[in-house]
């Protein structure tokens, strides 16, 4: 009879943390995706508008990996009002050779959180100036915290400003991050000022209306937009596409439907097939492209990919098995 491994959130938290290993895991996943060998179908997404919710199913097969993950990932963005996290869910691992069920990772969204923050770190590693030290984080939820933590692992961050609609939540996030990261993190109510004075801007909200305006961007900045992962979400003024010098999507076929590119295509600030106007050497490659000039404005559009999920799930299972974590049941 086949054996099934079950891992709980606390076991997975012990196995995987946001650190250099997790970043390496996700960087390798993007490199595999860029090789063109990965099989990654479009995201299956169900909107439950009535409750400001969505459920995303993501998967990918990576040649050479013994297993592939299928992830079920709800995002219900009114949950914080009732004391619940916005995102949750689980990942399931299957054998790549036989399709047999191998493991259920009851992570409650933890592995998605880590792989998403690690993607932000990979983006900054390749696209932010090496001396980038001032950050603006837009939003004060789970990813706002993790994205800043991730940036501190790849750039010499000295200070950050957190902007949030809800000032109290923004102030709490800033205080918490100051204490946990040991850098100066303050709340800023003036988003224009916070964006304009940052070396790196990360947008982390499910906003359906642009928050960051094109004329706030400055030479030498890197922007990662990771909150907009559904067609209706839009954190950047589409005009940003007319001023950025380098654009990198996690998956072009996703960002043109779900990410910031989608809105730029609709607004006509980017064209299908594209190339951003005013381009010096624009790229749409998946990864491995690094910033070439300290004056470039770079934009990374993250919509979240199944290859990240297969990578983090297989990594977590390997780490957990190394310490004999979890229970095995015969099914
Ligand atoms: N690209 C990717 O791979 C992933 C993207 N996401 C997306 O990132 C976003 C944030 O996720 P979490 O941090 O887990 O959520 P969260 O609910 O913990 O945090 C969201 C933050 O955005 C704020 N916010 C909500 N609506 C807003 C609006 N209209 N204008 C300004 N601020 C607003 C909230 O008050 C909160 O501070 C979501 O859109 C989620 O779908 C999440 C995980 C992976
Ligand atoms: O899988 C994912 O990236 C997400 N699921 C819900 C919000 C984002």
Secondary structure layout:
Blueprint: E1 3-8, H1 9-15, H2 20-35, E2 44-48, E3 53-60, E4 67-76, E5 90-95, E6 101-106, H3 110-127, E7 134-138, H4 142-154, E8 159-163, H5 167-181, E9 184-187, H6 191-196, E10 200-203, E11 222-225, E12 246-249, H7 252-255, H8 260-267, E13 298-301, H9 306-322, E14 327-330
Parallel strand pairs: 1-6, 7-8, 7-10, 8-9, 10-11, 11-13, 12-13
Antiparallel strand pairs: 1-14, 2-3, 3-4, 4-5, 5-6
Helix pairs in contact: 1-9, 2-3, 2-9, 3-4, 3-9
The structure holds 1,4-dihydronicotinamide adenine dinucleotide and 3,4-dihydro-2H-pyrrolium-5-carboxylate (2PC).
3,4-dihydro-2H-pyrrolium-5-carboxylate binds at residues 56, 58, 73, 75, 87, 112, 229, 304.
Can you give a write-up of this model?
With 331 residues, the chain is of the alpha/beta class. It has 2 domains: 3-112 and 307-330, 2-Layer Sandwich (ornithine cyclodeaminase, domain 1), CATH 3.30.1780.10; 129-304, Rossmann fold, CATH 3.40.50. It is 31% helix and 23% strand. It has helices spanning 9-15, 20-35, 110-127, 142-154, 167-181, 191-196, 252-255, 260-267, 306-322, and strands at residues 3-8, 44-48, 53-60, 67-76, 90-95, 101-106, 134-138, 159-163, 184-187, 200-203, 222-225, 246-249, 298-301, 327-330. The strands form 2 sheets. Strands 2-3-4-5-6-1-14 form a 7-stranded mixed β-sheet. Helix 1 crosses helix 9 (306-322). The N and C termini lie close together (6 Å). Mean pLDDT is 94; it is low at 275-288. The protein binds 1,4-dihydronicotinamide adenine dinucleotide (NAI) and 3,4-dihydro-2H-pyrrolium-5-carboxylate. Residues 75, 77, 80, 86-87, 112, 116, 139-143, 164-166, 169, 204-207, 226-227, 229, 233, 302-304 line the site of 1,4-dihydronicotinamide adenine dinucleotide (NAI). One of its GO terms (cellular component) is cytoplasm. Its EC number is 1.5.1.1, 1.5.1.25.
């Amino acid at each position: 009879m086949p054996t099934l491994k079950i891992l709980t959130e606390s076991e997975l938290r012990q196995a995987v943390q946001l650190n250099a290993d997790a970043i390496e895991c996700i960087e390798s996943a993007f490199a595999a995706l860029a090789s063109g060998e990965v099989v990654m179908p479009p995201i299956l997404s169900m909107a439950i508008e009535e409750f400001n919710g969505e459920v995303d199913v993501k998967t990918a097969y990576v040649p050479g990996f013994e297993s592939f993950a299928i992830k079920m990932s709800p995002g219900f963005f009114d949950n914080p009002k009732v004391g619940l996290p916005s995102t949750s869910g689980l990942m399931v691992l299957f054998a790549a050779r036989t399709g047999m069920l191998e493991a259920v990772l009851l992570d409650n969204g933890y592995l998605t959180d880590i792989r998403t923050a690690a993607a932000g770190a990979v983006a900054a590693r390749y696209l932010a100036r090496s001396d980038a030290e001032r950050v603006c984080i837009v939003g004060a939820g789970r990813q706002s915290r993790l994205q800043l933590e991730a940036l501190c692992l790849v750039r010499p961050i000295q200070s950050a400003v957190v902007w949030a609609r809800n000032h109290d939540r923004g102030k709490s996030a800033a205080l918490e991050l100051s204490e946990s990261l040991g850098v100066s993190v303050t709340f800023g109510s003036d988003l224009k000022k916070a964006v304009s004075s940052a070396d790196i801007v990360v947008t982390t909200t499910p906003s359906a209306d642009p928050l960051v305006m094109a004329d706030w961007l400055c030479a030498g900045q890197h922007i990662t937009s990771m909150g907009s992962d559904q067609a209706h979400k839009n954190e950047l003024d589409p005009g940003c596409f007319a001023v950025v010098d380098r654009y990198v999507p996690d998956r072009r076929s996703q960002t043109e439907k779900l990410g910031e590119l989608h809105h730029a295509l609709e607004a006509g600030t980017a064209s299908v097939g594209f190339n951003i106007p005013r381009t010096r050497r624009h790229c749409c490659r998946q990864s491995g492209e690094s910033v070439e000039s300290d004056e470039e404005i770079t934009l990374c559009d993250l919509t979240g990919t199944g290859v990240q999920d297969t990578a983090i799930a297989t990594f977590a299972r390997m780490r957990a098995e190394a310490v004999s974590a979890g229970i095995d049941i015969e099914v």
